[in-house]
C-alpha cells in the first residue's frame, strides 16, 4: 500500500524552510533515566534509532539541564561540556543514519530541582519539593540565559538538529512567566513584558548563536492549571513574541507538575487538551504541535485534518510501539501496541529513579538488552492461560518462529485486562487485548477459547514445552458470613455482571478496590466526554480566569460507597506515584467513605460488622455496622496453580509465569515482562 494513503494529513511533509519533516509526528520529550549517565548513550542511541527507522519525523530527547543549578537532581543529565556533546555524537549519528532528526531538550528545573543549589525568579518553595530555591540576582539571570545559549551551541556541536526549550510544566522559564512564582519588582518581574523577558532572551540568543538552520521548538505552557498562572491573553502575547524571537515550532505544554489535575493519566480523554492548541494556532503563523493523550492514528489524523494543529506530539505511544508510524503508514492500525496511559513502567519508574520501560512493551529503553531473535529450532509450545503473561509469551514465541497453541478457559483472550477495561477511565486496556488478538492471529497462533481440558490433554499433546500462565483467583478472607449471597467478589461484578445495590461496602483498597469504587460510583459504562471530564476537574475551555481553572463539578456518585482496609494510611498504597493522588481525589469527589484500620468481625442480616482502630496502639477501637445491600470483596488474590500441580504430578516439567507464579507481586507489568523473557529463552 502506498505510504500515507491511510492518513493523508499525518503523512504530509512539513516544510520548515531550511529542512522538511517527512510527516507530522513529533516524538515528544520523555525522561527515560538513560540520560543521566554518559555511558548509557549507546542504549539511548538504539532506543531513538529504532523509532527513527520506523519513520518518526522529528524526535526530542529527555531533558538536559543547561547548568548545574538547573539539574533535576544531583548527577542528573546536563549539556554543559564538549566531552558530553562529543559523546552524544554516537546518538545523533545513529538517528541520522536511520533517517531521523533529533532535538535536545533544554530543561532547567528551577525550583523543581531536588538539590540544595536550585534557583528561581523568587524564593518560593514548590509544594512538591522540600528544597527552597534561591532568588536569582540580575547577574545570575544573565548567567542562566548564557547557559541555555551555550547548551544549544553544544547540542549543535553534538550533531543535534535543534533544541526544544522547555518553557512549561512549571519549570524555570514558566516560573518567571507566572505571578505565582515570580514576585520580583525589577525588570524581570511585574509586568508581562518583564516576566517574558527571560524566555525571549533565551530564544533570541539561541537563534543568534546556533544559526538559521537549527530547529528551535519552544514548549509553551498553554494551560498552567495552577492559581497565579498566566491568562490567555498573556499566553498569546508570549507565543507571538517567541515566534518573532526565532522559534521554528511551538509545542503545547499542559499543566504544572504541582497542578492537582491529571493531564496524561488514562482517565484523561484522548486529545483532551487539543482545543487549547487549536486556539493558539489561530494566533501565530509558526507551526504548532498538539500533545497529551494522542495515541491513535485516527485521533491524530482527525486533529490534523480539522486544522487543530500542524503536528502531533507523542512520547509514551512510541515507547509502547516503536513501529507505530510504520504500522499507521501501512494501514495496520489494529496491529499497533497502543499506549494505555497507565504510567506504570514509564513515568512511575522515572519518579523512583529507575530506568523507564513500558508495561505493554518491556523492550522500551532496553533495546540493546532484550532482543527478540529468530529461534534456532522451531518447536511446538503450549501455553495455558490467555491473560497478559500468556499473551506476551505466545506473541514473542510466535515472533521468534515457534508454533504456539494457546489454551484459554474464557470465551475471550485478555484475562484481567478484560476486567480493567470495564472501569471508567480504563477503557484503553481493551486496546491491548485487541493488539494481542490481532497479532496472534496474524502470526498463526492457534487459540483454543473456552477450553475445559486439563493436564492429561496437555501432557498428551506432544508439545516440546508447556507454559502455565493460569493467573490468579480472588482471595476470600475468612470473615464469618462471607458465604452469604450479598457478598460478591470483584469477578462477580466485573466479569459476571451481577447487579449491585445502592449501598455497598468494598473490602480492600488496593488497585482493584479503588477501581471497583470508581466503577460502582459511575453507574454506567459510557466513557466520559472531554467536556464532562473538564467540568469534573475544573478546566475552563473558555479560559476566563488565569491558569485556565474553573470550579470543579464532580459527578454525583450513583451509589453510597464505603471503602475499607486493614492497614493505616491512605488507600491505594501500592499504586504508582503519578496516578494514585488523582485516584484518591476522584474517590473524595465522589463522596466515597474511606475507612483505614479496619478489623472485619462478621456479616449478617444487619450488614458488615467491623471495628476501626486509629493506629496499631489503639486499645479502644470504634465498633460499628455498615448496613449495606452488597459487600464486594477486593482483598487481593491467590495463585491459580491447579493445572501446574497436576502436570507436575504427571511427570511434566511445565514453566510457570505471571500471577500463577507469584500472586503477591502480580501486576500486568511483571506478567508481560515475565512472559516475554521466558519466550526469549525457549
Ligand atoms: P492489592 O493491591 O494487593 O490490594 C489488596 C487489598 O486487599 C489491600 O487493600 C489489602 O489491604 C486487602 N487485603 C489483603 N488481604 C486481605 C485479607 N486477608 N482480608 C481482607 N483484606 C485483605 O491487590 P489488588 O487490588 O487485587 O490488585 C492486584 C494487582 O493489580 C496489584 O499489584 C495492583 O497494584 C495491580 N493493580 C493496579 C492498578 C492500577 O491502577 N495501577 C489497578 C488495579 C490493580 P489491607 O491489608 O490493608 O486490608
Ligand atoms: Fe504507555 Fe503505560 Fe507504556 Fe507508559 S507504561 S508508555 S503509560 S503503556
Mean pLDDT figure? 96
Q: Helix- and strand-based class? A: alpha/beta
Count of extended strands? 27
Strand order of the largest sheet: 3-4-5-8-9-10-11-12
What overall geometry do the principal axes of the alpha carbons give?
globular
Helical amount: 25-40%
Distance separating the two termini? 35 Å
Number of helices: 22
Oligomer: single chain
Which spans have pLDDT < 50 for at least 5 consecutive residues? Answer: none
Return Rg in Å: 26 Å
Strand content: 15-25%
Main sheet summary: 8 strands, parallel, barrel
What small-molecule ligands were found? NADP nicotinamide-adenine-dinucleotide phosphate, iron/sulfur cluster
Per-chain topology:
Layout: E1 14-15, E2 20-21, E3 25-27, H1 41-53, E4 58-64, H2 82-97, E5 102-106, E6 119-120, E7 134-135, H3 138-158, E8 162-167, H4 172-177, H5 192-195, H6 197-210, E9 215-223, H7 232-245, E10 249-254, H8 274-281, E11 288-290, H9 297-305, E12 311-314, H10 316-320, H11 324-329, H12 347-351, E13 380-384, H13 388-399, E14 403-407, H14 417-420, H15 429-442, E15 446-448, H16 455-459, E16 465-468, E17 472-474, E18 487-489, H17 490-494, E19 503-507, H18 511-522, H19 530-537, E20 560-564, H20 577-589, E21 593-595, E22 598-604, E23 607-612, E24 622-626, E25 630-633, E26 637-639, H21 642-649, E27 655-656, H22 668-681
Parallel strand pairs: 3-4, 3-12, 4-5, 5-8, 6-7, 8-9, 9-10, 10-11, 11-12, 13-14, 13-16, 14-15, 16-27, 18-25, 19-20, 19-25, 20-21
Antiparallel strand pairs: 1-2, 17-26, 22-23, 23-24
Helix pairs in contact: 1-2, 2-3, 3-6, 13-22
Bound molecules: NADP nicotinamide-adenine-dinucleotide phosphate and iron/sulfur cluster.
NADP nicotinamide-adenine-dinucleotide phosphate (NAP) binds at residues 344, 475, 477, 507-513, 515, 565-567, 574-576, 634-637, 666-667.
Amino acid at each position: 500500500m502506498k505510504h500515507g494513503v491511510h492518513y493523508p494529513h499525518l503523512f504530509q511533509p512539513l516544510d520548515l524552510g531550511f529542512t522538511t519533516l517527512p510527516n507530522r509526528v513529533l516524538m515528544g520529550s520523555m525522561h527515560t533515566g538513560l540520560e543521566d549517565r554518559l555511558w548509557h548513550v549507546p542504549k539511548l542511541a538504539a532506543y531513538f534509532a529504532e523509532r527513527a527507522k520506523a519513520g518518526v519525523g522529528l524526535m526530542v530527547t529527555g531533558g538536559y539541564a543547561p547548568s548545574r543549578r538547573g539539574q533535576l537532581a544531583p548527577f542528573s543529565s546536563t549539556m554543559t561540556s564538549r566531552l558530553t556533546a562529543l559523546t552524544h555524537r554516537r546518538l545523533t549519528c545513529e538517528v541520522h543514519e536511520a533517517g531521523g532528526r533529533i532535538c535536545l531538550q533544554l530543561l532547567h528545573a528551577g525550583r523543581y530541582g531536588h538539590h540544595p543549589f536550585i534557583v528561581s525568579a523568587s524564593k518560593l518553595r514548590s509544594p512538591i519539593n522540600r528544597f527552597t530555591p534561591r532568588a536569582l540576582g540580575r547577574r545570575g539571570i544573565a548567567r542562566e540565559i548564557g547557559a541555555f545559549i551555550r547548551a544549544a551551541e553544544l547540542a549543535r556541536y553534538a550533531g543535534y538538529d535543534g533544541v526544544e526549550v522547555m518553557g512549561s510544566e512549571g519549570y524555570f522559564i514558566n516560573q518567571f512567566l507566572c505571578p505565582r512564582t515570580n514576585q520580583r519588582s525589577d525588570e524581570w518581574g511585574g509586568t508581562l513584558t518583564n516576566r517574558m523577558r527571560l524566555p525571549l532572551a533565551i530564544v533570541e540568543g539561541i537563534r543568534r548563536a546556533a544559526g538559521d538552520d537549527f530547529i528551535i521548538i519552544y514548549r509553551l505552557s498553554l494551560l498552567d492549571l495552577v492559581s497565579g498562572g498566566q491568562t490567555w491573553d498573556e499566553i498569546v502575547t508570549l507565543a507571538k513574541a517567541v515566534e518573532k524571537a526565532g522559534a521554528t515550532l511551538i509545542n503545547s505544554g499542559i499543566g504544572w507538575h504541582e497542578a492537582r489535575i491529571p493531564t496524561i493519566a488514562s482517565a484523561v480523554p484522548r486529545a483532551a487538551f487539543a482545543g487549547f492548541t487549536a486556539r493558539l494556532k489561530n494566533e501565530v503563523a509558526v507551526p504548532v504541535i498538539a500533545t497529551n493523550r494522542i495515541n491513535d492514528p485516527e485521533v491524530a489524523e482527525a486533529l490534523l485534518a480539522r486544522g487543530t494543529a500542524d503536528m502531533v506530539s507523542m512520547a509514551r505511544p512510541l515507547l509502547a510501539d516503536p513501529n507505530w508510524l510504520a504500522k499507521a503508514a501501512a494501514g495496520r492500525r489494529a496491529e499497533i501496541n497502543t499506549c494505555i496511559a497507565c504510567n506504570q513502567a514509564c513515568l512511575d519508574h522515572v519518579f523512583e529513579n529507575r530506568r523507564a520501560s513500558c508495561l505493554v512493551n518491556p523492550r522500551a529503553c532496553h533495546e540493546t538488552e532484550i532482543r527478540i531473535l529468530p529461534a534456532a529450532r522451531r518447536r511446538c509450545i503450549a501455553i495455558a492461560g490467555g491473560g497478559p503473561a500468556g499473551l506476551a509469551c505466545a506473541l514473542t514465541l510466535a515472533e521468534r518462529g515457534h508454533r504456539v497453541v494457546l489454551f484459554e478457559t474464557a470465551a475471550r483472550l485478555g484475562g484481567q485486562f478484560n476486567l480493567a477495561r470495564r472501569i471508567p477511565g480504563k477503557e484503553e486496556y481493551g486496546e491491548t487485548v485487541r493488539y494481542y488478538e490481532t497479532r496472534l492471529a496474524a502470526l498463526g497462533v492457534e487459540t483454543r477459547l473456552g477450553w475445559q481440558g486439563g493436564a492429561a490433554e496437555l501432557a498428551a499433546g506432544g508439545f516440546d514445552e508447556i507454559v502455565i500462565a493460569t493467573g490468579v483467583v480472588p482471595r476470600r478472607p475468612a470473615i464469618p458470613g462471607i458465604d452469604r449471597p450479598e457478598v460478591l467478589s470483584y469477578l462477580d461484578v466485573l466479569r459476571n455482571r451481577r447487579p449491585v445495590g445502592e449501598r455497598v461496602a468494598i473490602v480492600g483498597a488496593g488497585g482493584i478496590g479503588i477501581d471497583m469504587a470508581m466503577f460502582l460510583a459511575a453507574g454506567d459504562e459510557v466513557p466520559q466526554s472531554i467536556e464532562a471530564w473538564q467540568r469534573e476537574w475544573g478546566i475552563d475551555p473558555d479560559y476566563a480566569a488565569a491558569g485556565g481553572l474553573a470550579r470543579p463539578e464532580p459527578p454525583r456518585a450513583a451509589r453510597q460507597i464505603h471503602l475499607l482496609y486493614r492497614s493505616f494510611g491512605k488507600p491505594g498504597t501500592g499504586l504508582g506515584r503519578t496516578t494514585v493522588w488523582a485516584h484518591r481525589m476522584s474517590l473524595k469527589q465522589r463522596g466515597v467513605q474511606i475507612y483505614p484500620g479496619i478489623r472485619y468481625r462478621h456479616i449478617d442480616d444487619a450488614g458488615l460488622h467491623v471495628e476501626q482502630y486509629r493506629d496499631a496502639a489503639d486499645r479502644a477501637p470504634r465498633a460499628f455496622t455498615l448496613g449495606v445491600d452488597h459487600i464486594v470483596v477486593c482483598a487481593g488474590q491467590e495463585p491459580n496453580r491447579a493445572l501446574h500441580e497436576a502436570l507436575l504430578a504427571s511427570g511434566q516439567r511445565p514453566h510457570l509465569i505471571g500471577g500463577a507464579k507469584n500472586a503477591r507481586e502480580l501486576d500486568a507489568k511483571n506478567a508481560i515482562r515475565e512472559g516475554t523473557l521466558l519466550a526469549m529463552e525457549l
